Structures are given as structure tokens and as C-alpha cells.
Amino acid sequence: MFNTKLPRHTTRKVWVGNIAIGGDAPVVVQSMTNTDTADIAGTTEQTYALWRAGSEMVRITVNTLEAAQAVPHIRDALAKMGCDVPLIGDFHFNGHKLLTSVPECAEALAKYRINPGNVGKGSKRDEQYAAMIETACRYNKPVRIGVNWGSLDQAHLARMMDENAQRAQPFEPEWVMREALITSALESAQKAEEIGLPRDKIILSCKLSGVQDLISTYRELASRSDYPLHLGLTEAGMGSKGIVASTAALSVLLQEGIGDTIRISLTPAPGGDRSQEVIVAQEILQTMGLRSFTPMVVACPGCGRTTSTVFQHLAQDIQRYLRDQMPTWRNQYPGVEAMHVAVMGCVVNGPGESKHANIGISLPGTGEVPVAPVYVDGQKTVTLKGEHIAEEFQAIVEDYVHSHYGANAPAITNKTIPIHSI
């Protein structure tokens, strides 16, 4: 037997609304809107869509008086839609003014995100930072102290560069930058506690855009604190580049037990679906075996035996159908998120993979008999033929969900795909 239980870096538990981060809580998925927050209808609509896709927290930009005034209305509109997703306020430069002048905003938000590099300069820095922390204390709100390499406090970095230059053997500039990020986060957290924010109200992040830099920074940050850590590769990029880079960085850290909440910072295509970043975050956690969010579809890549595209379309349609159903199924069919469906394209691995899944179908490959055996919990139950295989297979999946995960379903153990078959 392989020991697949991953270690977990020990952190304190922080509650963000009704969502726990850190401690023994599962890794939480979050995302961020890209609408103008002052646009109440647009921001409400996108927040609701992100929540429906599975985002457990949603961050919104609060950068103007109009945006701050819109926050409580967005919160109320979401509540009327049955959406209780915690809202996180993203503050830069003027957060101290907005939180003070619009107390309804400060109260409606479930968490504040503060960037130490953007709270002020010179003598105003401590005063403005303290004002934001005092507001968090007043309304009993947690805070993410989020340091970014692109907006690192330059005075802090310059001081560390000067200190490094005086060493007999100076460190490389890259090391100093990473250390500046870490110390900025830790010192800011210490100041927050001195002001009065409880330790179990603080989450940290040190986000960079380089994979190896991010891994090194978070390893060191985890070794020096027990605050919950927010993971994310900042400015990850578009499409496959952003997905691959984020997956490469976060998977290494998650494998080592580092990270309590994640966000995938994808640049969407113009007019693209913002919820893609939620799906990627979920798939990282689910494929690593850390959480289950939606039934997973196993499908072969295709080869010379599978010149027909029937299995490709079926796999795509079934995966889309399962994900579309999850907002309803989460409460109606508990446990369904761990279900596995196999859609295979020929007889080489088709029957074997189908037997390992809860439900599997082995479609005929090139030159094979035009029939598709279906396996349910490892047993062949029916053979589909003709032009309506896709519709008939989807009906079988629906029946399985109703009978195995419904209110009157018997207790079952979901099949797990063996390591050797992946």
C-alpha cells in the first residue's frame, strides 16, 4: 500500500465569515472579480457566478468611495439570491480612508486584504496601517497581510539591501528580495498584533510571479510562522501558460503541506469566463487528492485506434454536464463530488478503466465492433448501440447519481482509481 496522506504545515485556524482557513480545515478556493465594484449589478452577477462555480470566498476591489458605498448593497443583493459567500475587500493606497468613511463597507466585508507596500509612505505609513487594523479590530474582521514582489515597500527593501552590502559575504540580490518579502509580512503581522488584532485573525501571503522564487519564499515563510498562508502565483499569465505555471508552483507547496487557501491568478481572454480560475484551482486540489469538488471524468488521449471523435465529444459533454449540475447536486446528493466516470475510446484500456470507475463506457475504436459496453461499479450492465449512445449514457449517469447519492441511497464507498491505472 502507498501512503497517500500528505503532511500539513501546522497553522492557526482563522474564520472568514462561515469559512475556516488553516488549522484542520481543508484548503479553500477563492477568486476575485474584475468588474468595477461601483457597478453593483455587474459585480453581484460575477460574484454569484464565481460562487456557483465553486469559489468559497470572493475578493472585490475597493478603491473608490463609490466602490466602498456599493459593497453593502452587493452583500444584500447576494443574500437575496441565496448566496452567502464571504466577500473580501482588496485595499491599496486609500483603504484607511474608505474603511473609516464608509463603516457600512467595513462591516459588510468578511475580510480585508492589506498590502504593506501600499499603505502609505514615510511618517504616514504607520498611522494609515494602524487605522486599517483598528477598523478590523472594531468590526472583528480577519486580515490578509498580502505582500507582492511588484509592490514591495521600497524603503524596507533599500534598508535590507544596505544591510546586505555590509556583510563580509553578501547574499545574492534575489535572496534579499525574497527575505524582504518575508520580513515585511512577518513584521506587519507583529505590528497588527501590537495594535490589538488577535493572532487568529491574521493570514499571510508573499506572492511572486516566478515559480522557483514562490516555492522558496513560501517554504521559508512556513518555517518561521504559524499563520495560515494564502497561495497564489501573481501575474501568472493567460491560457495554458498561466495554468501550467500556477500548477507547477502550488502543487509543490501543497505536496509539502504548505498552503491553506489558494487563488489562480489567470488573465482571462477578452470577454472570457472569469470562473476558469476557480475550475483550475479545484482541479489542482482534486487531482492531488486533497479535496473533491465535482465528479471526475477519466478519458484516454486517443491514438491511431480512435480516429472517431465520438469518445472525445462524449467525454467533453459529460464533464460539462457534471460540472453544470454541481451547484444543485452539492446539497441534494452529498458525496457525488467523489464519483469517477470513465469515457474510453477503444478496447485496449477501455474495459479495465471502466471497471475501476463508478461508471464507465468503452466506445468502439477504429475497426472494432460498433458497440459500447457500460460498466457500473465494476460490473458490465448494458451494451449501447446506435446513434443515441451519448444520451443513453448520460441517462445512466443520472440514474446512478439519484440511486447512489440520494436521500434514500444505501451507504456506499466510492471507487478510487488505482495508482497503476493513472
UniProtKB/TrEMBL annotation:
Free-text cofactor note: Binds 1 [4Fe-4S] cluster.
Keyword Nucleotide-binding: no
UniProt enzyme class: oxidoreductase
Cofactors required: [4Fe-4S] cluster
The reaction(s) this protein catalyses: (2E)-4-hydroxy-3-methylbut-2-enyl diphosphate + oxidized [flavodoxin] + H2O + 2 H(+) = 2-C-methyl-D-erythritol 2,4-cyclic diphosphate + reduced [flavodoxin]
Keywords: 4Fe-4S, Iron, Iron-sulfur, Isoprene biosynthesis, Metal-binding, Oxidoreductase
Every IspG TIM-barrel domain range: 11-281
EC annotation from Swiss-Prot or TrEMBL: 1.17.7.3
Location of the IspG C-terminal domain: 297-398
Pathway the protein takes part in: Isoprenoid biosynthesis; isopentenyl diphosphate biosynthesis via DXP pathway; isopentenyl diphosphate from 1-deoxy-D-xylulose 5-phosphate: step 5/6
Residues binding [4Fe-4S] cluster: 300, 303, 346, 353
GO annotation terms (biological process): isopentenyl diphosphate biosynthetic process, methylerythritol 4-phosphate pathway; terpenoid biosynthetic process
Keyword rRNA processing carried by entry: no
GO molecular function (one): 4 iron, 4 sulfur cluster binding
Pfam families attached to this UniProt entry: GcpE, GcpE_C
Domain of life: Bacteria
UniProt xrefs under SUPFAM superfamilies: Nitrite and sulphite reductase 4Fe-4S domain-like (SSF56014)
NCBIfam families noted in UniProt: ispG_gcpE (TIGR00612), PRK00366.1 (NF001540)
Function noted in UniProt: Converts 2C-methyl-D-erythritol 2,4-cyclodiphosphate (ME-2,4cPP) into 1-hydroxy-2-methyl-2-(E)-butenyl 4-diphosphate.
Family per similarity comment: Belongs to the IspG family.
Protein name per UniProt: 4-hydroxy-3-methylbut-2-en-1-yl diphosphate synthase (flavodoxin)
